[in-house]
Amino acid sequence: MGNSDHKKGKILIVDDEPFNCEIMQEILAEDYELKMVNNGQECLNTASDWLPDLILLDISMPGMSGYEVCRQLKGSVKTQDAQITFVSALDTLADRLAGYEVGGDDYITKPFDADELVKKVEVAFKNKSLQRQLQNHADKAMKTAMSALSSTNEIGMVLQFISATFHCNEYDCLAQLIVDAISAMSYRSTVQIRAEGREINKCSEGTINPLEVAVINRISHEDDHLDIGPRTIMNFEHVSVLVKDMPVNDEEEYARIKENIAVIAEGSEVRINAIEAQNALLARAGLLDVLRQAQQALNALNEKQAEHKQQILALIQQLKRSLQAKLVAESMSSFKIDPIVDLVNKTQKGALAVFDGEGQAENPVEHVIEELQAVINR
């Protein structure tokens, strides 16, 4: 008689005439699960607890009319999705419009034919099935839309993070920036940066958990990535990121967050390398500046030494000329003058030896200057 596909379908029959209930039961019991009540209030109570797929509802009942029952059923979150088919002896257009206005889905006129009832019920269940499909599609579309919005928002956060790293020139600043970026996505994290002999640890809670740091230190050079329940650790050469509350029950969100965290970690690794290179350049620039200053000082010293040498030679030459003139004026013989001149010449030779470095092949100051220049030009 009916369609066996609806064997588990639940129908609530509401009629104050037991005879009508018995007829509908005889027609539908083979294919559907049935319950029967004889007034509006019992219908509301049973429908709220049992949640039928279809309600066959009489209109003219004592106490509460079928119209009022339908209005309350459609106004309840628990029962608003139930299909409601009025089964009534009332058959005017006004009666049907009244049923439509309160939310009814179909209308059967008493006395009804068995085949008509079966077909109306089948249509109601098909509509119910279509309604569920549409609701599932709507839920899926909403979930997809929300996921897309979340993804867009998270991508924006990642881009903001990458942009902010360009202005971050210290490791402590970068570690805090990573923690803040992950917190902005509503996840807790611990971050470790290893660079230039230092280890910087930051976490979203503020207080570092020593066990977490120990775990990171243990696996930072062993695994690029490790999942431990809701925790995920990602390791690069200079940075490790531990996210503590990954959405393990949502596969799509889990994959998305994991990808975003990987981008943040990899971007941090690139920035750490840049900071290291920058610090190395600054250190080399500082050393070169010191070397240049040393070279300039030695050049000045070398020039001053040469100047002093010329001044002393000039003084000795002047002394020799003055002595010769004085001795000639005193009418001293050549025999007496020559030893004095030899002494002056010997003194001049000794002074030159002091300036030139007696026994050395080259000027040591000039050698140091040449070595400094070679280092600076590398």
Report on the architecture of this protein.
The chain has 378 residues and is an alpha/beta fold. It has three domains: 126 residues, Response regulator (Rossmann fold, 3-Layer(aba) Sandwich); 134 residues, 2-Layer Sandwich (Beta-Lactamase); 93 residues. The protein contains ten helices and ten strands. The strands form two sheets. It has a five-stranded parallel β-sheet, sandwiched between helices. A five-stranded antiparallel β-sheet has the order 7-6-10-9-8, sandwiched between helices. Helix 2 packs parallel to helix 3, helix 5 packs antiparallel against helix 6 and helix 8 packs antiparallel against helix 9. The two termini are 99 Å apart. The N terminus is likely disordered.
Give a quick precis of the structure.
The protein is built from ten helices and ten strands. The protein has 378 residues and is an alpha/beta fold. Helix 2 (40-50) runs parallel beside helix 3 (66-75) and helix 5 packs parallel to helix 8 (251-329).
Summarize this structure as a short list of keywords or feature phrases.
5-stranded antiparallel sheet, 378 residues, Rossmann fold, 5-stranded parallel sheet
